[in-house]
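EI: anyone free to look at a 257-residue chain?
SC: sure, send it
EI:
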Amino acid sequence: MKLILHIWRQKNAASAGKMVRYEPQDINEHMSFLEMLDVLNQQLIHQGEEPVTFEHDCREGICGCCGFMINGLPHGGNKNTTVCQLHMRHFSDGDELWLEPWRAKAFPVLKDLLVDRGAFDRIIAAGGYISANAGSAPDGNAVPIEKQCAEQAMDAAACIGCGACVAACPNASASLFTAAKISHLALLPQGGPERSRRVLAMVNQMKAEIFGACTNIGECEAVCPKSIKLENIARMNREYLAAVAKHREEVAAGGAG
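SC: here you go
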């Protein structure tokens, strides 16, 4: 199987980058996309050239590390598929592929296809957790939760933080990611006590990271490998407005006292 690859090569964050053409050998349809890049890198090393840098970890579609653009589409455009789950059988002999990193100001390129997604970590650190020390996991039936709420929370918790939503959005918005992390806690009773503080902190941190605003285009949902729904953004907005109103009432009450 022969391919022509055009890969973004960039030495470091301070350097200018460019597309470089490669024609890897010994590729077969049974390889995953990352295995194909492994083969290319082995060939580059044998030729005394710098291998292509890309992030990966689990290679099972769980960790969210491996994302980049393939022919202008996050993760290659296959529905519910991350780059590491993509296989060469989806391509044809002689195909020409263009590989680029995520493009967003909040995701600066570190090297080649590797970007810094630390902005997501800082959003989580701002409030994407339950601070109470609740000890070990309770019995699964100890806290009754409506089936619909449980399912919606699980759907939101499926977000792997890969960044495809940001890369696809023309505004480079992180609203879908942030909303998923807010939703999966807001829908459960364990997340209730801190919901106002959480949504204010996480949304404000998202704004501080210079992500764009959501304008309901829907590209984020279309490319999300875990099918996170736009309805989570609506829930985040409702949570945020309620938290702002509550905060203003508390400030007014404090001033009156």
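EI: The first strand starts at residue 4 and ends at 9.
SC: 👍
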